[in-house]
Amino acid sequence: MSGAIALQRPPVQHSRMRRTEPIDRGIDEQESGAVAPSIPSSARRTWLAASAALVAFPRAVLAQSTPKVYRIGILRGVTPDSVRVWDGFFTDLRRFGYLQGTNLDLEIREYGNATRDPDALASELVRLPVDVIVTGASPAAEAAKRATSTIPIVMTAHPDPVGSGLVSSLARPGGNVTGLSVVTRELRGKQLQILKEVVPGVAKVAVLHNPDIPVQVRELKEVEVAGRSLGVRIIAVQARSVAEFADAFAAAARERAEAMIAFGGAVFFANRQQLVGYAGRGRLPVIYSFREFADAGGLMAYGPSLSESYRRAAWYVDRVLKGAHPQELAVEQPSQFEFVVNTTTAKTLGLVVPPAVLARAELVS
Question: Can you name the residues that pair with 261 across neighbouring β-strands?
Fold first, then answer.
């Protein structure tokens, strides 16, 4: 009797019930000896594809919402509160879309007044590792180059990358180093010419340099060549740290130097207030390479804009992080120079700066 009732069920209803039964019923039927309903292969493929998409979707969304974090290493000899030239670099990094805590991780290593070994700090950055190393004044770039030949290095302000062996040439760096050079061969001769215009009858000029920086030793020779052509005797005085400033100015006084050219470098720049102070106490007219010295009370400065150079370095970093190789990016040289005269310091030294010189200069007090 029950069998007859089963035979009277409409086929359509029987088919619908089988399609909507839970999967575990098929398992029960197999265990009880019944034959499990078959699922067409096309439907099985559709179901598997949909399941895979559901699993992959959250991963894809997560990948899109979590940006790549770039790790930038910075090797420099100054402390953050001693210089503002890095502000332009960080500002332009943000302009290019790199934000600390979002897609940027900064690893800053500072060797200050030679209190820490730049080579050891460069090796720390390499071991992290970082995606690119940005270097401040010499010898930061040299230390980074000794530490790695593969991680890209961007120089913010190097005086002589070719002579230092960092790059093969400015147009074709040829290795893992690129960036900006801030000194041209004409710079030191021009500084000497300005001193002759401002200090009447100057015949002896001291040159303050750091002998531990090879490029400054080469620059000293260039000044000596310019001195011979201008009829000025060059007196070399040196300082490796701020502790040697007093001895350097004492040596210049013993040689009766009438003026001085002070080179750059991390030690001199970070301690420019002390450097300017020694010049003032010795009543010695000094010309520096960067306007920050004149802003700190130095008599004059003639050289490229450091703030512009550091700002431009952010462009190099952006290109490198987007896949460009340093050897594809030519090293840039400064095309414009700043000439700054501190009129208050000139009056203190009793100097009357010729009107023709003042007309060419930016005046600060």
Answer: 207, 287
Which CATH number do you get for residue 278? 3.40.50.2300
Tokens of 266: 């991390």
Domain hosting 162: range is 70-183+308-328
**Are 121 and 164 contained in the same domain?**
yes
Is 53 domain-assigned?
A: no
Please state the pTM of the whole predicted model. Answer: 0.76
Q: Confirm if 299 and 285 have CB atoms less than 8 A apart.
A: yes
pLDDT tens-place string over residues 112-133: 755 578 999 999 999 999 999 9
CA atoms within a 13 Å half-sphere pointing along the CA-CB vector of 290: 24
Which residues partner with 237 through β-bridges? 208
Tell me if 205 sits within 8 A of 178, measured CB to CB: no
User: Are 206 and 146 in a shared domain?
Assistant: no
Q: What is the pLDDT of residues 22-72, one digit of tens each?
A: 434 443 444 444 444 555 555 555 555 555 554 555 554 545 567 899 999
> Distance between CA atoms of 142 and 75, rounded to whole angstroms?
11
| Residue 26 resides in a domain | no
> How many Cβ atoms are within 10 Å of 226's Cβ, its own excluded?
22
